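worker-03 picked up job from queue 'complexes'. Input manifest follows; four sequence lines, order preserved.
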Amino acid sequence: MTKVDIPRKAVYRLSLYQRCLNHLRTTGGRTVSSEALAKAAGVKSTQLRKDLGYVGQFGTRGLGYDVGTLSDAITEVLGTARLQPVILIGVGNLGSALLGYSGFGKEGFEIIAAFDAFPDKVRLRETKLPIFAMQRLGEIVARHGVKMAILSVPSQVAQSVANVLVEVGIQAILNFSPTVLEVPDSVFVNQVDLAIELENLSYFIR
Amino acid sequence: MTKVDIPRKAVYRLSLYQRCLNHLRTTGGRTVSSEALAKAAGVKSTQLRKDLGYVGQFGTRGLGYDVGTLSDAITEVLGTARLQPVILIGVGNLGSALLGYSGFGKEGFEIIAAFDAFPDKVRLRETKLPIFAMQRLGEIVARHGVKMAILSVPSQVAQSVANVLVEVGIQAILNFSPTVLEVPDSVFVNQVDLAIELENLSYFIR
DNA sequence: AAATGTGAAGTTGTTCACAGCT
DNA sequence: AGCTGTGAACAACTTCACATTT
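worker-03 finished. Artifact:
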């Protein structure tokens, strides 16, 4: 299979296109033009076509794309066809909000377990999800074949927790702690840095 | 003043450098080399020097940068010298976590008010912050000179709320709703799309 | 006529290489 | 000698222009 040579940014946008397609699936007609889909995703139509070009050829000239076919094709290359199990570490303020966030499920992810240094202190409003102590991490990751983790621990301990994650075989980390993680090249990290996003905005207003 | 011609990504990294500098301020010595600071920020030293080049010349050859001076210079161009008032719209699961997030304050932002369509239904665990009804938005924005808003409302209403924000004069929106917002060119939007970040990771793990 | 697919041109961002201070 | 500052080379990404298909 010829993977890993779609540009990073294009992959990101493919997710976006898919979300728009799902919308159209219920509301709109059977086909979309690159123009229409691009507008929904907030990009130029020519960029959309270039992005889809990485995936294959799905359009009919003069007509557009079949919504269902295109959506399936994108699902296929993104590898989101099957439900991915995810774990979350750090059930503090932000962590518990993320546990309650319904958006993950919609895109094919399921948080199957949460961990915290002090699992007894955590009191969630409503949840069926068990909060485990860190000691159980290896065991549960192995049992469920978990590859991805969401990290929402205080920044002081982020690196050491990340080390543990790497050790037990986690391959991708979505990091909410404002820390630059050092991990082996084989492990992917996506950083979501809330304060920096705000700071970034503040620069561009005047 | 010669603003707005530092590349977007460079601005982002400048925030990162500053955070590292603040760290060093307490722990490390009086000076840093580009090599050391770059390592802390997880970038190449040559990139760091290029980025600092956009700001000015602060280093001493053969020695490095003075931590305090450099930090001040970055603060200056980022415009984070003074505390920026921010409002938050949508005090749901994620919204209340963001209210409790201490990271914003550390970087010079203060959430001065929160708004919700149903302010009475919101029950925060602990907070001194008043939750206002949407009708009060214009009044409070004007009174405090608020320019920035954090948007964490359900995606179905995100666009209409954004329209209101634009109307009352908000210039920058940090958007957590999984929706592509349409706003005038004069308004800046930074999108934080949690599900897409996960999806993006899932593509890159084999 | 309408819309896709794509090489080529253009733009932006990153890395290199090294001159120039201290 | 050590480390910054920066033009030039390079790489990544975006947009254009247009041939091609239905």
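worker-03 released lock.
The beta strands of chain B are 31-32, 59-60, 64-66, 84-89, 109-116, 131-133, 148-151, 172-175, 188-191.
Chain B has nine helices and nine strands.
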